[in-house]
User: Fold this.
Amino acid sequence: MALFTRFFLICSLLLPGTVDFAQTPSVYDQHDAFAPLFYPAFGDAVRAADGTPGPAYWQNRADYKVDASLDTAQHAITGSVIITYTNNSPQDLSFVWLQLDQNIYNNASRGIAATPFGGGRWANRNAFNGGYTISSVSLVQNGQVQPVKYEVTDTRMQIKPGKIIHAKGGVISFKIAWSFVVPEYGTDRTGRLKTKNGWIYEVAQWYPRMCVYDNVVGWNTLPYLGQGEFYLEYGDINYNITLPSSLIVVGSGELLNPQEVLTSTQIKRWNAAKTSDKTVMLRTEAEVTDPASRPSGKANLTWKFKCINTRDVAWGASTAFVWDAARMNLPGGKKALAMSAYPVESAQDTAWKRSTEYVKGAIEFYSSYLYPFSYPTATNVAGIVAGMEYPGIVFCGVNAKKGGLWGVTSHEFGHNWFPMIVGSNERKYPWMDEGFNTFINTLAEKAFNNGEYKNNRGRNAQTLGRPFFGEGTEAILNIPDVTQPANLGTVAYRKPGFGLQLLRENVLGPDRFDSAFSYYVHKWAFKHPTPWDFFHCMENSSGETMDWFWRGWFINNWKLDMAVTGVSYVQNDSSKGSVITIACLEKLPMPVTVEVKETNGKTGRVTLPVEIWQHGSVWKFGYNSTSALEKVTIDPDNTLPDINSKNNSWPQE
Ligand SMILES: [Zn+2]
Assistant:
């Protein structure tokens, strides 16, 4: 039936015309674009073919108890951690791998050696020579500690406990004692900044963390070189920070002992903030230098935090913090607390005094769009780090203002969904967190405060063709350490982010896309999806096969060039209808919209599915016009990053 209909259309419409396609060669090949067997493996009981965790899905677990102290004279952190590791895999393990990411700051590190001459954002600065000093590694058994064999290779540590960690639930505990000096500039992810009223510490990658063991590669042990971020197991983390009582600490998760570390006034204000949608000052600018804004009587205090079901924790500490908070209203009546900690230098109405409003706006939006925010607090810390995310806490630039501060705050907290809730492998697939996050940021930007900071970025997608498909631009599916630093913004952020926008606006439509994307987030919340799981999941939920898009947009860097190549009339009579010829000149097909203007003043639009390109690079379709055509335009709203917009209209301008 389908064949017959097509034959009939061709017979009735393909009459002499003015097609000039022969002059415009196409590199498009439908056999490449729609080749079967896209997936490298069939689904199995662990990673099901429908893109969800299968009935035998497993994931190992890492729980941590950390005790650390900060020596503010030496800027040094000394601590110990007890890691309780649960092997839920179907295999016995005889060794484990951990990440020692502080070791990137050791002058002998691979990260420093592999930093291009001239430095860059991920470079070590000021010839700082840091890294971990490991003082002991022990096995904890029946309350006893016993030294165990371990080996450190750059940013990795292997521990051979001398016993098997049994499959399907075997548990082992290690205790590691360590120290390091906090770098002033720590690859723009951690560090410290001197302000008028003292140093602001932003502490991350600060305790040894388990590598992920999975059914994809086994142990994920790529070294930390700077550009690639993190891949971590979930668990509960209790951490205690001891430091001079003059410092305020903000950290991931719940503060367990506010009565010990806050003044009674601050506790009262904290409780007021829990019921206030307007920002409540916990510590005002005037109070920063007032000793009464800290509990008296003790030289040091221990701040106790707990973060449940998390892949990491980070914290900030300073004598200089102005501190404020407001309630966040989450789906299902849940509440959480948005907070900001910043120095007086940043306390302007055009800057950090609005930070908590931004935290609240961003998190409330993402919570209702995708999945409820999962921690009791969300804190934005102003410091040396320009923008970096951790569970329930982010570090944003101390000088950020207005839309810049909104943008970085929304972006860093957007990471609470990718990769904090959906725990993908950032060190290999940055687009699964940065790209997905960039996409949701554009939606949050439209929603926040009636579009206060909405900009026109991407409104004319044709301007994106050049950066997305430039000569030196790499494919999205590359590990970040291999992506050229100048391309990272395109390859890991903007192009994958725009890819989701194309799926939402041009392929599936907002309702189907939003439903499928939320389904992916819910299915993989607190789990470890691969790119294939994401692709499978989106296809199964939306019912649409999109291998042509995954292949062209993510795996290859296929360009997009749509064109209108000719117009003719049925029986050469413009009153009987017209035949429009369009072409796909580059390798990436897309569904298209074509706008037709007639000389009689009528305008109409035709939307064509991607399947038209299953027949080749040229497509003809009939249009029920009653007069000669004045103009035919493909992608009239400029939604496609078309590399050559000159051929998008007929007649060519
Ligand atoms: Zn990011």
User: Anything to note?
Assistant: Residues 1-22 have pLDDT under 50 and may be disordered. The first strand starts at residue 61 and ends at 71. The chain has 14 helices and 32 strands. Residues 181 and 227 are 21 Å apart (CA to CA).
